[in-house]
TrEMBL record:
Residues 3-122 form the Spen paralogue and orthologue SPOC C-terminal domain. InterPro entries: SPOC_C. It holds the Pfam family SPOC. GO terms for biological process: DNA-templated transcription. It comes from the Eukaryota. The gene is Phf3. This is PHF3 protein. One of its GO terms (cellular component) is nucleus.
Length: 132
């Protein structure tokens, strides 16, 4: 990440679980709409099963009319790292992904996918088209 510039900085907030400052770094896709559309605070509205997300992603890819972009979220401070780890553990232990509740103009769906350092990137998201 040291060689990349972050494309967004703000809060991730899931009430009763965690709230912290985070930076988003580009991984794959076009980020123009994302950087314009993301609010100062991403509100996590709930959980969703990975199966549901991947079914939806496959339909989007097949349609060819929408873009998928992937970012990596990184906490800003050590204190943010603790809250980040709490949210990661929350989703991982339940085998669920997070769903953003914000209403955005261009970005229609935003999912938080907890990947551990040794986890492989889900095959639905590769190959990467970007800095990786």
């Amino acid at each position: 990440l040291a060689r990349l510039n972050f494309i967004w900085k703000g809060f991730i907030n899931m009430p009763s679980v965690a709230k912290f400052v985070i930076k988003a770094y580009p991984v794959s896709g076009s980020f123009e709409y994302l950087t314009e559309d993301l609010p100062d605070s991403i509100q996590v509205g709930g959980r969703i099963s990975p199966h549901t997300v991947w079914d939806y992603v496959e339909k989007i890819k097949a349609s060819g009319t929408k873009e998928i972009c992937v970012v990596r979220f990184t906490p800003v401070t050590e204190e943010d790292q603790i809250s980040y780890a709490l949210l990661f553990a929350y989703f991982s232990s339940r085998k669920r992904y997070g769903v953003a509740a914000n209403n955005m103009k261009q970005v229609k769906d935003l999912y938080l996918i907890p990947l551990g350092s040794s986890d492989k990137v889900p095959h639905h998201l590769v190959p990467f088209d970007g800095p990786g």
